[in-house]
Amino acid sequence: MTTSITTAVPSNLDLRKINFQTISELRRRGHSEAAIAAMTPETAYSEFCKFRGISNPEQGPAKVLANLLQAASSTVQHNAA
Fold first, then answer.
1. How many whole angstroms separate alpha carbon 70 and alpha carbon 63?
2. Which of 10, 22, 47, 57 has the most neighbouring CB atoms within 10 Å?
3. Residue boundaries of the structural domains of the chain
4. Running along the chain, 81 residues long, what does each successive block of 10 average in pLDDT?
5. Pairwise CA distance, residues 4 & 67, whole Å
């Protein structure tokens, strides 16, 4: 006896929760709303960054900012010593 299990694969992104500008920019990059909904957050972020001209989204703005803030706080601590 063979049993098959079929499960629906939910979309990764809920378009109702993404701001209009982000969806518009992804659409201008050539993605349909269905394709955007099927993306992982990481893929959508990478595509958004590419649209904005950020060539290395893995080292995205949030990581750069965190690194700079860490560098600034270590300098402040070092100068205070």
1. 10
2. 47
3. 15-75
4. 49 86 93 93 86 76 76 60 51
5. 48
